[in-house]
Amino acid sequence: MRTIAQVLVLAVAALTLPPLAAQDGKPMVITFGGFGDLSPFTLNGSAAEIQKDGKGALVEGQPVLRLTESREWQGGSAFLTRTIPLANQASFSAAFQFEMTDPKGIGDDDGVGADGLAFVVQTKASNVGGAGAGVGYAGISPSVAVEFDTFNNGEVSGNHVAISINGDTASVAKLPIEKRMNDGGVHYVWVDYDGAKRVVEVRLSTRPERPEAPLLRHEVDLAATLGEPDVYVGFTASTGSAFNNHDIRYLQFVNAFQESGAGQTGPPAPVEKTLRRVDIVQLQDGAVLFGKLIGVDAATLRLEVKGEVKEITRADLHSLVHATLPAGFLVDAKWMEEWGYPEKVRIAPPPPPEGSRNVPPAVPLRAEAPRLDLLQVDDGTVLPGKLVSIDAEEVVFQVLTDVVKVPRGRLCAIQHGVLSAERLPDAPRLEPWSYPEGPKATP
Q1: CATH value at residue 229
Q2: What does pTM read for this prediction?
Q3: What is the pLDDT of residue 17?
């Protein structure tokens, strides 16, 4: 797990544990790149019921901190059991990622699902919140909460960000958001409080790059509001007649103001829900091209490869595969026989029963075709090459003479050895990777 400074490993103990202490006079940096171990947290309400084993809920192979499930009338919270000292005029910087999925129930003007979640810094206790009302933080005082509200209860909108003080849901600052927050995507948040200027700023994005300008800004004296320097840091969420999952994917908290904000170094966003199509052309000499088929006539086939149109003579064409690449796996690629323009493309029949003599002959290649690995990343890009290695952090992949390193979180799927000397076989569906087991073929 990477951090911008020291990673502190926390341990649960009694609620009277002393506050965490920084070392060597440096700011304390607490990072959770995942939530496989929830022992540093006190879980309350539905969060405790969902994660009774002390391990985060798994979403696409990544352990997350789930505050509520997609069920009605839920309320959950999770706070670090040990307090964190905010000695420098209550200054801090935090970064986290949230995801709200599977919206159901009644709806408002922007669709179904509710109610939202909040990032909360408070001095009361670690076992508070999660009552189901006011996004789970209502009544927690002293506190400051940054709320991501997804249901219109007569507020500014059914999709807004707000800053609230001392558990009062009549927020001191709020702003409607155009992009729906419970859309199933990952949202990146930065919350910074500069005690010298007495200003709290909130930034929100669908990308891990911190926006230059804050989305919301409010002047408040947090040192006076909180009353004491040792704080509990955590999250709350709730549902009602409308509901969805409320998940935290990543958290970094620094007990000092950071001019550039805390780091977003956790797991990247999951793959997009729909990725592009790709056409795979194999030539008689074994070469393989990936692109988009834009035309074919009696003499040539035209394939667009990264914006460049390549013309392939009919005599050089061995085979063509049309493949759809959705999130999580490479779907079955239909093997097609050699093109026979102007006739329609013929799809090869299913394999004959074992022992049958009616087996169509394979089209020989002029040269032995190489075996090839296909790697798909989360933006739909497909790389042909050779898998060199894979570990918990990255995939090393050789493309021609170049070595490409792909972060594990960006990996969508790998198909091993799809090209043989005889033909392009059907590519089995691959489930999303879950290290260290690797890909699992499904029927």
Answers
A1: 2.60.120.200
A2: 0.59
A3: 54
Q: What pLDDT was estimated at residue 43?
A: 95
The pLDDT of residue 1 is 26
Instruction: Flag whether pLDDT at 159 surpasses 50.
Output: yes
Mean pLDDT for all residues in the chain? 74
User: Cα(296)–Cα(301) distance, rounded to whole angstroms?
Assistant: 4
Closest to 316 measured CA to CA, from 285, 340, 360: 285
My answer on whether 237 and 200 are in the same domain is yes
Question: Is the same domain home to 231 and 322?
Answer: no
Q: Do the domain assignments include residue 5?
A: no
130 domain-assigned:
yes
Read off the pLDDT of residues 386-406 as tens digits, 9 standing for 90 and up. 777 777 677 887 776 677 888
The confidence score (pLDDT) of residue 437 equals: 29
Tokens linked to 292: 């988009």
Does residue 17 fall inside a structural domain?
Answer: no
Q: How far is CA 195 from CA 198, 200, 226, 233, in A?
A: 5, 9, 12, 17
The 3-state secondary structure of 376-415 reads EECCCCEEEEEEEEECCCEEEEEECCEEEEEEHHHEEEEE
Return the sign of the alpha-carbon dihedral for residues 271, 274, 276, 277. positive
Is 23 within the bounds of a domain?
A: no
**Which DSSP letter does residue 359 get?**
-
Number of structural domains the chain divides into: 2
Q: Are 222 and 195 in contact (CB under 8 A)?
A: yes
What residues make up the domain containing 171?
29-254
Question: pLDDT tens digits, residue range 339-368?
Answer: 222 222 233 334 555 554 544 444 444 444
Which residues on neighbouring strands pair with residue 403, listed in sequence order? 398
Instruction: Write out the two tokens for 166.
Output: 């001392």
Contact 121, 236 (CB under 8 A): no
